Amino acid sequence: MKNVCLILGLVIMSLSGCSNNTSPKTISTPQSLQSLSITTNTGTNTNTVSNPSTEENNSQPNDSNQQTETTNSTEKTFATQQDFVDYMYEKVKALEDTVSLLDSNLTQVYSVAGTEAETAQLSIRHNLLKQTTNEMNAIESLKRPTEEVATLQDYVVKAYHYNVEYKTAEYEVFKAETLQDRQVLLDANAENEKLAQQYISLAWSEIDRLSETAYDRK
Known about the structure:
With 218 residues, this protein is mostly helical. The chain has a domain at 74-210: A middle domain of Talin 1 (Up-down Bundle), CATH 1.20.1420. It is built from 8 helices and no strands. It has helices at 2-20, 31-34, 52-59, 63-74, 81-111, 117-140, 150-174, 179-210. α5 packs antiparallel against α8 (179-210), α6 (117-140) packs antiparallel against α7 (150-174) and α7 runs antiparallel to α8. 14% of the residues are buried. Mean pLDDT is 78; it is low at 1-8, 14-56 and 67-73.
């Protein structure tokens, strides 16, 4: 009986010791693994990266295309030959008016020479010559409705060209310091003056030849 009790006591002590050693053990997880998130792959690829700058650039209008469209939409066109002749008539009249303004301006420059007002008059002269040059370039680039008006267009462009040359040099004649210098400049500019008047006359003759209507030049 003693032996049975002794064996039973040893078994109880053994079980008690096992229960004390079964305390839960904690496994530490490395920091890098804790921060790692695992996403389940659902079969949809979401790796597309959008480029904001590219999208913004693509949404912006093309300035060069807009400029081209604007230029094309404002380009002067002529439905008939008579429309072109009428337009040239207006341009030759405008040239004659500009020449008159330049003559008047030179008189004003002469009267205010050496004063502050001279600068203002010279600025007016410069602008008139610049506008006339721009007008000449615009006329030269016009598309003709027929080749019949090619000669007229050429005459008008040359009328503008030689009048600009003549009136530009005219001021240099005025500013010459000596009579001899002035005469040299006058002689050099005489050909420009002759051609300026000649091409205006030729332009008028060509307008009269081509026009279906009579113009009143008064």
